[in-house]
């Protein structure tokens, strides 16, 4: 990977999907522009696609967006795994990503942006997020960004502040990968975010036919935690400033650096990176040197509060680092309010860390139980086929369907009189519970799926034969 950007050559099938999606997006924006659907402006357009999000009434989507999202999502996850292996890590980014497949009625955190821009536009959003390539330096906020375009035109900055054409020679079926700030924080700066801009020949109008692009942003979940402890465990030395932080808070801290153009009152345009950003709550409640929360904050004679390593430095210099006033030697007064606020925010961060760890543990247990359940079903004689696919789609908690005949295998909470009896499922309850009717006695009982077992096809055939024999003998 050269300066945190690389061109990925796709296989023939994936390359065909990307070319089809680019052409479909171009026709979509041109058609909407000619029909007045794109605000009457046929020379620009942008559409954002999220998996799992339903279209609103009257809304339409460019064709092939779902296929392009799936293709680019698989490539982005594979690239993230390759970066982890290069850093001697293993599966450290999986907890940051959306579940696959997505739960019902849940939209994805990652987004696919289709954009079309004509070269004669002058002001607009950035190359990835909106309508026109920008000649200002831009940095992505997510983990990774994949860009497919019908024309090259993106430059990336190297460590010597020299710009080079990153997607030169690439075709519509190739992808340009850029690293983002979330990945930079998760890797403690070992994979810095790539800085990019538009090539000068594009901004000057060399490409007269316009530019169509698809950009896939691999974003972490908002409730996840960016934690650098696996980097330390792998033997890397990281600065103390890289502390665990929630994704939502991290994105809020980057709001001042968001790659969009702000319209000022005087009619000129200026990027937010040139404006004064407000400090975040976490930065106010943390020691700027060590990054730890100010749970030992004290007030010095000038009125400012310090704690941790900065307090030690201020005492050694006998001068306030904020107002540059000499401080008096004497007893330090604890800042009770600041300590309480820092402790509260730290407690919330710890709670989120614990919640995510518990969530990962539950997902692992569910996965192991799914494997065990399928193995037991195979041992019980279940035939792999349509039933297995339905089991996969229904999930672990509902492996049986209504009116299905099952065997009560029971557990320590199941009454002994029901163990070993056959029953028919009459209804499905919450959290994997079923209401059953016991055959023979007609009693109703409510049991969880763990207490039930499928009846194999061979066993069901034997039962039917026995019933027919009993009927014949009775007649």
Q: What value does the average pLDDT take? A: 76
The helicity comes to 25-40%
- Shape designation: flat
Main sheet attributes: strand count, strand direction, barrel closure? 6 strands, antiparallel
CATH topology of the largest domain: Jelly Rolls
Number of domains: 3
Domain PUB 62/63 C-terminal: 396-454
Protein name: PUB 62/63 C-terminal domain-containing protein
Pfam family, one: PUB62-63_C
Write the layout of secondary structure elements.
Layout: E1 5-9, H1 12-34, E2 44-49, H2 65-86, E3 111-117, E4 138-139, E5 144-149, E6 154-157, E7 163-165, E8 174-179, H3 181-186, E9 195-198, H4 200-203, E10 211-218, E11 225-226, H5 229-233, E12 245-246, H6 247-253, E13 262-263, E14 269-270, H7 281-284, E15 298-299, E16 305-306, H8 308-317, E17 333-334, H9 336-379, H10 386-394, E18 405-408, E19 422-428, E20 433-438, E21 444-448, E22 452-454, H11 457-474
Antiparallel strand pairs: 1-8, 2-3, 3-10, 4-9, 5-8, 5-10, 6-7, 6-9, 11-12, 13-14, 15-16, 15-17, 18-19, 18-22, 19-20, 20-21
Helix pairs in contact: 1-2
